[in-house]
Design brief:
Elements (H helix, E strand, L loop, with lengths): L9 H4 L12 E2 L14 E3 L9 E5 L4 E4 L5 E3 L5 E10 L11 E2 L2 E2 L2 E9 L6 H4 L6 E11 L6 H4 L10 E4 L15 E6 L10 E6 L3 E4 H15 L18
Parallel strand pairs: 1-7, 10-13, 10-14
Antiparallel strand pairs: 2-5, 3-4, 3-11, 4-6, 5-6, 6-9, 7-8, 9-10, 12-13
The structure holds 3,4-di-O-acetyl-6-O-sulfamoyl-alpha-D-glucopyranose and zinc ion.
């Protein structure tokens, strides 16, 4: 449904999509400010292998993996628990698919790990309406010439068409995060798609994760068919970004 509404019409149906804290943004690193009060992000339970099933599915819009609440983040003002992760990539299938930009550069793809404030709210649905309700980790993805790639990302190849899903017995979300996690950009923004709720505390890591080109071609061509054009990112607000050590 959402994918049929072009992004320049979103604000007509979803008023929040026309407001001033819309994500994604272009992060101009020169104009970021160091904020010494920011803590390193510490994921807890992300590498758990408790024998649960993780459901990775293609909802016709993007590829989403549900995550258990015991995965949580430390280092944010409140405790946030994981809900799901999903991937954004480009409609032309090759180079430009990230939502956030660093110094005007669009990356190949971007992974989002969505969390809700589980200290204050009972679930994601309630939290997403609250100012301090959500926290999303943004991981920028690049092509690696060496051909190295994360094992976990290869799994996205299995969900080719809308409605496809795989259940995984164990999944190491840690593998999808950059090695250097203490350098990131932080700002208050929104969900990048309707309803565009301005309730997201964003953390975009400075270090990107590498993916092989071979993987990319398979993934991109399968999603090209499914998404028929992919998602169009909105141009959002600039500034209010902080850079810790
Ligand atoms: C993508 O469309 C995901 O498929 C959505 O997840 C997600 O919605 C939406 O992006 C916005 O999230 O981190 N990019 S974002 O700001 O997480 C939500 C599902 O539809 C609410 C499950
Ligand atoms: Zn997203």
């Amino acid at each position: 449904m959402i994918s049929l509404v072009p992004f320049y019409h979103w604000a007509e149906m979803y008023p929040d999509c026309g407001r001033n804290a819309q994500s994604p943004i272009n992060i101009e690193t020169q104009s970021t400010k160091y904020d010494p009060s920011l803590q390193p992000i510490k994921p807890l339970g992300y590498d758990s292998k408790l024998g649960e099933y993780f459901n990775l599915s293609n909802n016709g819009h993007t590829v989403v993996m549900s995550l258990p609440n015991y995965m949580s983040l430390e280092g944010l003002p409140k405790k946030y628990s994981a809900v799901q992760l999903h991937l954004h990539w480009g409609s032309r299938g090759t180079e430009e698919g990230s939502e956030h930009q660093l110094n005007g550069k669009t990356y190949l793809a971007e992974l989002h790990v969505v969390h809700f404030n589980s200290e204050s709210y009972p679930n994601f649905t309630v939290a997403k309406e609250k100012a301090d309700g959500l926290a999303v980790l943004g991981i920028l993805i690049e092509v690696s010439i060496a051909g190295g790639h994360s094992k976990s990302l290869v799994l996205f190849n299995f969900v080719f068409s809308a409605g496809d899903y795989v259940s995984l017995h164990s999944f190491d979300v840690h593998e999808l995060l950059p090695k250097q996690m203490d350098k990131y950009f932080r700002y208050n923004g929104s969900l990048t798609t309707p309803p565009c709720s301005q309730t997201v505390l964003w953390t975009v890591f400075a270090q990107s994760v590498q993916l092989s080109r071979q993987w990319l071609m398979v993934a991109a061509s399968s999603l090209l068919v499914t998404l028929q054009g992919g998602q169009q990112p909105l141009v959002g607000r600039q500034g209010m970004v902080a850079l810790p050590v």
